[in-house]
Amino acid sequence: MRRLIFAVLHDRGRFQLSRTFRLQGIGDLRWLLRQYDLQQVSRGLDELMVLDVTRGARDHAAFVDVVGRIASECFIPVTAGGGITSMAEAHALLRGGADKLLLNTAFDSDPTLCDALAAQFGRQCIVAGIDVRRQGGAHEVVVAQGARVVSNDLSAWVSHVQAHGAGELLFQSIDHDGTGMGLDTALLDLLPAAPTAPCLLMGGVGHVGHVLEALRHPRVDGVATANLLNFIGDAFLDARKEIAAAGIDVAQWGEGDAQALRNCLGAAA
Amino acid sequence: MTTVQTTPSLDLRWCTNCVAMSTRPRLSFDARGWCNACRWAEHKRTLNWDARLVELESLLARHRRTDGRFDCIVPVSGGKDGSYVAHSLRSRFGMNPLAVTVTPALPLPLGDANLRAFIDSGFDHIAVNADPNAMRTLNRAGFVEMGFPYYGWLIAIQSAVLRVATGMGINLVFYGEDGEVEYGGSTETARSAVYDVRYMKRIYLEGGYDKVLEASGLPESRLQFFRFPPQADDPSHGLQIAHWSYFENWDPYRNYLVAREHCGLREAGEANAGTFTNFAQNDQALYALHAYLMYLKFGFGRATQDACIEVRRGAMTRAQAVNLVRLYDGQYPDEFVPLYLEYYGMDAAAFDAVLDRWVNRALFDKVDGRWTPRHVVA
Amino acid sequence: MHVVVLDLGTSNVRSLTAALTWLGAPHSVATDASALESATHVLLPGVGAWDAAITRITEAQLRDPIMAHVRTRGRPLLGICLGMQLLFEASDEGTLPGLGLLPGRFRQLVPDIARGHAVPHARFSRVTGSADTGLFAGLAADPCFYFTHSFALPQLAGDGETMWCQHSQPFVAAFTRGRLSGAQFHPEKSQGAGLRLLANFLRRDGAVVACAA
User: Which ipTM did the prediction report?
Assistant: First the structure.
């Protein structure tokens, strides 16, 4: 079954829209929860991601708090990360409500940390964020929010992150990010062999048509979108119906299940 | 077609493809309910752009100089559109453009920074500063008499640019997009590469040029940059004014990406007032008032404009556009009002009285001192 | 009712306690055995490495109290993900023996990319083989649950309900054997379906509840 993931980008209390990795502040947590009734909207999603994209000094405690508040709104897996530099930070996120961790720069600056996290929490807990930028005719893998090139060989980098504990791979196209022009499925075709780990694709979704196009690609296990403006309201629920109607195998859940069960054991004290 | 009945005389419709509103002057709908801007966007996909390119090259050939002198003028603000056109003329077509800015009345720091970055990316540039007092008088007259808060500047970005052109012996001027054709309006210039001062006065200045200059009471000595050069009306002089959008498929988002890549354009950290984008119209504080007046006059604002662009370029569905318009459109420019009052030398009551004069009362009711729409985009 | 969630320190118990709170089930989180005596139900969640979890169980001396809860007091226990695995004898993931309450060994999942089976198995997947009773009462046919694991149980003998999931090979997705239940998936991360499964587990053994469902 394929996956649809909603990612929210957090920068010191404000959620961001990203266009080729340039950020625009949109609204705070109150705004987010007002535009997205996560209890409802989560029925259209396989997972949530909460990513810290702060460019300057990070406030990790505030981020952990935000992750927890978002996770408490729904009963689906939550991946959190961006800027994880220590075991303590990882621990805090997992205790605070995250189910999986996203590591990106750490695979370059501190692969031992990645090893340790995978050893303690299991590979299935580690998602490797891989940001890719086109340069001339070639592709560069970059870290630190696009500031530093770490490889010109995507395949080699994939092997590297997998050797250091990555359970899932999240490929993000910087060039497509925020353009609303669709995902860069060609990125996955760059790999000589399909990875055995789940592959997620992110960057460029403007509407469900882009999601459909990518989910039809044999190497794409899931699509993530951080498009904060184009899916407000119930759009993810509609998107899921459309994806299923298009014949793509996605999990579906009935309406009202969670609501109906609220406090149903309360009488049995 | 989606219709809302408000008063017997008002029949509001929205384009079934984008969210353009029927109140927009010169907007029309086809049998599908598509507005003329969407039809144009559709048409552009199959239009023979190669032929347009040939026309462009032939136009450029007539003006291109080999002695190093400037051969064309591009009005720029430092924003994405002028930067894109100037960059294209130089890097793709080997022209030697002179960039000209007419300094707006209340420039914003980001606008100044973007203009500086554009110039620093390697352009010859003239900044025309019309006498700010004269500019202010004309802006105020435009605000009051026409509901156009920067009317003086709107005149000058045409008249002063043409004055520079004729003054420096440059006979080719490229503005960016033809707003009527691209965003829904008259299509008379859709098949015409060049236009003239008469069109500028009729369409861009909404026929108010003479009235506003008269109302300003300014002497000729203060109006030099607001007067069109007579050579512009003389065909034998050879001055040609063109829209870049005639020759190449106009794509504001592409312009933004190129300007960012090559001309140092930076975005605002947050959305601009009244919309969800942050990469357009960052040069002057009066633009927010201009957009707000558009909202009061016609019932749609900046967010609607931006959402229509997104829908037409395939980055957003109509349903999503509706959501964003409901969320962002028609925002009162709170943060700028003290600046406006000081600029115009008005108190709040006088300022509101001008807004009241221009609001379309068939569309809005005043609730708690603010004009509130009766309609909701459908 | 009093549900005890055993926290082995390897997982995020917050989601599970949030689910219990949502359902209205009185509960507490325990890191040692002292709370087990009064527990009507025990939940054993777990994420991560087999050996680390077994070591934790040993250090906290949880093995015997868990046995007592199930065998002596005859009360229900639900193992979740790694917690389900720990109930068995062994896993290819580690070297230490499991609790051995049930026979079986967990095997590493084998990828089959051509058919869309990646490893780890990390996504919602369909679970089949359930009747509309027991753990799966009230659920639609072939409900989808969230899995995230690299090791799985290929078969399970004995009487009781057994539910299956198809990866490159079929494996046991959930089961009930007497007082013991297990879910390889995460019910607390599986939308309303998971909440219903938890409620079904907790409602067994008599507690008659009023429920909008």
Answer: 0.91
